[in-house]
Design goal:
With about 230 residues, this protein is α/β, with parallel strands linked by helices. It is about 25% helix and about 25% strand.
Amino acid sequence: MNTPNRPAQHGHDQHEPDKAATADEYWEDFYRDRVWSGRVNPLLEREVRDGVALPPGTVLDLGCGEGADALWLARNGWRVRAVDVSATALRRGAEHAAEQGVAEAIEWERHDLARSFPEGTFDLVSAQFLHSPVAANGEREAILARAAEAVAPGGVLLIIGHAGWPTWMEEPPADIEFPTAADVLAALGLPAPGWDVERAGLVSSEVTGPEGQPGRREDCVVRVRRTG
């Protein structure tokens, strides 16, 4: 998805899903109208800027959507592989990159992450709001486990996801079970020798509804580093 700037097999806020839709169909329909905010996820920005021993290097952005995070990372010295299932989102992301002069720093790849995954290892693997209303049971957990395999020695896996709907939302648009930080770590099953948990918990932020309603939302932040 994509909330502040996204939710799911990307990051984005969603409309009512067709349960029979494939990921490709759902997200192409989602991006039928432009949803570009241009704003980096502030929690990603905080983790990257404040992260210990996290200098710019290579980064895999899973579920990049129209590329707001990818562009911010590129502007801050990262070499980015940006991945999404939506060809429309990727095309728009590439257009924004060209407009901002960072096209050479970003590779755009189309993947349905339940079926294919980018090759290589990366200094940072970023999974921001990777929730999908059309995902099969266990699909997100399998993708995140594969994401951990893509982290280079010394690198970081950063998973940020919603912990619930915003307080102003009385009728959620989709039936999604939001995992806790403990759920994410348990699903990853990372061996203690070889990985350090640098952050695992909740962050509460102010969020404004589409009609200006004030509210708050809790997000789950998991940051783990491969040590071996």
